[in-house]
Specification:
Chain A: It comes from Jeotgalibacillus alimentarius. The complex is a heterodimer of chains A (about 290) and B (about 200). Chain A contains 13 helices and nine strands. Chain A is α/β, with parallel strands linked by helices and about 290 residues long. Chain A has an eight-stranded parallel β-sheet with strand order 8-7-6-5-4-3-2-9. In chain A, α7 crosses α9. Chain A is globular and about 55 Å long. Chain B has a seven-stranded mixed β-sheet. A three-stranded mixed β-sheet of chain B has the order 5-6-9. Chain B is of the alpha/beta class. Classes of the chains: A alpha/beta (about 290), B alpha/beta (about 200).
């Protein structure tokens, strides 16, 4: 009997496909998310838009919140650790969190090195903006990827950019001849063997979800249309007028992302979505996607 | 050609499709009730059972799925799919489809860090042991008199057959070993024969 194998860790993420993972800050929100059909919840102290507003150092959540959420729902519970913070990740693992997000939403603990995720029994999800970054995280052992997007902005433009970039680069690798792959590996900062595996599979060996800026059901459906395996929604749900309706609508739009009449129907009665931010209004230092490499 | 549907609301749909095709049958992703009329058997995949249940309700699939079961066509539930099929879920008042005579318990091997792979001996499957992947897996607490236990792990039932219904707590779709899917394809091709 083996725990923590690649198949067990990556398989867990495969089970989340076609689903929505929702940010929650307490048990009540977690229950609402579960009832709305979320496939997992991300237990946080503050959603990204509040982290942005309040500033300061953002760390792993108060563990009482994580524990409260874990006992409130039967779906998997994820939590965020700072990039490179080995101890935060180990602590979350010891508590039995089902998935850890090594997340640029929190203030990085290490600006040079990410976690060696293959050393852990618990699986990880990491953000990526291009295939090189995706490959480096897979090399370190992440079992799931997501776009970085620009968290807490309610602006989908960066998530779209990252999803298109990764998928475009995958198509390029798939169509390359084998003797071109080493140069591509050098240019991307990716391992040759992994690129070869991607070429043979025709896709990444782990799932890639959309995250960072999903604010409406149509945003979620758009990301599925662009090839996302599922969707993370952070500030979008609980910063909207009617979180319950919003959560249900996002789940339905993700499942039936090409059923436009249905998306129209579920979008009609939602009230106002979270107020979005123009990315160009953020200075480079304020862009969470610039964290990690 | 035998056509097998995979309930495509959420979860490991693509992997089951691949496994069905490897077994020589035709696979169809089923998202709407009318698609149930064109298939000979149905796989309920792994994923999150609470999510699938909600989507089953939203799209009015509950009665069509029960009617499909009543028609006698074979159904195979893996992990979350087993929970959907089960006649009783420990700790819950109501089952989902409630068609297979077993009692299941959710997340009964622990949280994700306790998820594991293990080799099983399966009644009706010859050859090497079968490597099964268990992810936050349920198990079958008890099986009815007409339900045949096909595999156990540490004395827990992890695979069983009740007539036309096959249910397992692990994920056959996550490995390259297609023998269990082939077993199901045979059930679909000759449902009356106990293999």
């Amino acid at each position: 009997m083996n725990t923590g194998t690649d198949r067990v860790k990556r398989g867990m993420a495969e089970m989340q496909k076609g689903g929505v993972i929702m940010d929650v800050v307490n048990a009540e929100q977690a229950k609402l998310a579960e009832a709305a059909g979320a496939v997992a919840v991300m237990a946080l102290e503050r959603v990204p838009s509040d982290i942005r507003k309040e500033g300061g150092v953002a760390r792993m959540a108060d563990l009482r919140i994580v524990e409260e959420v874990m006992s409130a729902v039967s779906i998997p519970v994820m939590a965020k650790a700072r990039i490179g913070h080995i101890t935060e990740a180990r602590v979350l693992e010891s508590m039995g969190v089902d998935y850890i997000d090594e997340s640029e939403v929190l203030t990085p603990a290490d600006e040079e090195y990410h976690l060696m995720k293959s050393d852990f029994t618990v699986p990880f999800v990491c953000g990526c903006r291009d295939l090189g970054e995706a490959a480096r995280r897979i090399g370190e052992g992440t079992s799931m990827l997501r776009t970085k997007g620009e968290p807490g902005t309610g602006n989908i433009v960066e998530a779209v950019r990252h999803m298109r970039k990764v998928n475009g680069q995958i198509r390029k690798v798939v169509n390359m001849s084998k003797d071109e792959l080493m140069t591509e590996a050098k240019l991307l900062g990716a391992s040759f063997d992994l690129l070869l595996e991607i070429k043979e599979l025709g896709r990444l060996p782990v799932v890639n979800f959309a995250a960072g800026g999903v604010a409406t059901p149509a945003d979620a459906a758009l990301m599925m249309e662009l090839g996302a395996d599922g969707v993370f929604v952070g500030s979008g749900i609980f910063k909207s007028d009617n979180p319950e309706k919003f959560a249900r609508a996002i789940v339905e739009a993700t499942t039936h992302y090409q059923d436009y009449e249905l998306i129209a129907k579920v979008s009609k009665e939602l009230g106002t979505a979270m107020k979005g931010m123009e990315i160009s209004s953020l200075s480079l230092e304020d862009r969470m996607q610039e964290r990690g490499w | 050609m035998t056509t097998i549907g995979v309930l495509g609301l959420q979860g490991a749909v693509r992997e089951h499709v691949r496994s069905i095709e490897a077994g020589g049958a035709k696979a169809v992703v089923v998202k709407k009730a009318e698609q149930l009329t064109n298939i000979d058997g149905l796989i309920l995949p792994g994923g999150e059972s609470t999510t699938m249940r909600r989507l089953i309700d939203v799209y009015g699939l509950m009665e069509p799925l029960r009617a499909f079961a009543a028609s006698g066509k074979p159904m195979f539930g893996t992990c979350a799919g087993l929970i959907l099929l089960a006649g009783e879920i420990a700790g819950y008042d109501e089952p989902h489809l409630g068609v297979m005579d077993v009692v299941v318990e959710r997340n009964s091997f622990g949280r994700q860090k306790e998820s594991f792979e293990a080799d099983l001996m399966i009644t009706g499957i010859e050859g090497d042991p079968y490597t099964a992947v268990f992810i936050r897996a349920p198990h079958i607490v008890s099986a009815g008199p007409d339900t045949q236990v096909l595999a156990t792990h540490n004395d827990r039932i992890v695979l069983a057959r009740h007539g036309q219904f096959l249910g397992c707590s692990f994920h056959p779709e996550l490995t390259e070993d297609h023998r269990l899917t082939e077993y199901f394809i045979k059930m679909v091709e000759s449902p009356a024969v106990v293999i």
